[in-house]
């Protein structure tokens, strides 16, 4: 069972609708107890980094999530701010992140190559998929299109964890993978058949 972590922010229903169309069992989890039957986890997120971390910390689910992901090595997919929460920390806030994939979340506006670009980075962008990218092994063209909406980006400490890049004034880390832990800055739940294929590949991982 895929469990979508519902800690107060994120496009929960959009994920539910996508998995329903894919005929893949998925339910939301609003408590630690509802994570008991999970085989895969989706960590969504929208808005500000600190607000999302505060809500996750207050949800009572974080210890169980860390046990499932770090000890039992359950596959997890962080999406948008959910991806950023996988990092060590963010320039957007002061709270520490989960540090499941070491890195820092940085601002496009404070990065010279993207500082003059419109903010936020919004709309469709193609992806440069690296060889061996776990979530893109099946069903993708060379440069699939995904929908983005963000002003901050993940900067992985170890570039070996970068599976996919996209360009917004420079090539930024758009998808990161560390074994069973994955993060995508784009929105698969809004990215039509490309997003459906990514979620299907994750569900089968």
From TrEMBL:
The keyword Lyase is annotated on this UniProt entry: yes
Protein's GO biological process: L-histidine biosynthetic process
GO cellular component: cytoplasm
Keywords from the named record: Amino-acid biosynthesis, Cytoplasm, Glutamine amidotransferase, Histidine biosynthesis, Hydrolase, Lyase, Transferase
Enzyme nomenclature, EC number: 4.3.2.10, 3.5.1.2
Pathways per UniProt: Amino-acid biosynthesis; L-histidine biosynthesis; L-histidine from 5-phospho-alpha-D-ribose 1-diphosphate: step 5/9
Sequence ranges assigned to domain Glutamine amidotransferase in this UniProt record: 21-202
Catalytic residues (positions): 80 (nucleophile), 187, 189
First-listed, main subcellular location of the protein, grouped into a coarse class: cytoplasm
Any one GO MF annotation of this record: glutaminase activity
Keyword Transport included in the entry's annotation: no
Assembly and binders: Heterodimer of HisH and HisF.
UniProt protein name: Imidazole glycerol phosphate synthase subunit HisH
Source organism (scientific name): Pandoraea communis
């Amino acid at each position: 069972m895929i469990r979508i972590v519902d800690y107060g922010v994120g496009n929960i229903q959009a994920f539910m609708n996508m998995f329903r169309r894919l005929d893949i069992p998925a339910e939301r989890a609003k408590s630690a107890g509802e994570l008991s039957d999970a085989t895969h986890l989706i960590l969504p997120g929208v808005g500000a980094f600190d607000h999302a971390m505060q809500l996750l910390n207050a949800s009572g689910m974080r210890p169980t999530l860390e046990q499932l992901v770090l000890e039992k090595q359950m596959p997890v997919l962080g999406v948008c701010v959910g991806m950023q929460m996988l990092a060590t920390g963010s320039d957007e806030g002061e709270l520490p992140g989960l540090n499941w994939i070491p890195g820092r979340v940085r601002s496009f506006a404070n990065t010279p190559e993207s500082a003059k670009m419109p903010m936020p980075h919004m709309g469709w962008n193609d992806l440069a998929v690296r060889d061996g990218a776990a979530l893109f092994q099946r069903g993708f063209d060379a440069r699939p299109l995904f929908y983005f909406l963000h002003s901050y980006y993940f900067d992985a400490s170890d570039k070996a964890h970068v599976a996919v890049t996209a360009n917004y004034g420079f090539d930024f880390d758009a998808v990161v993978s560390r074994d069973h832990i994955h993060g995508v800055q784009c929105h698969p739940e809004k990215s039509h058949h490309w997003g459906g294929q990514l979620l299907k590949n994750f569900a089968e991982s």
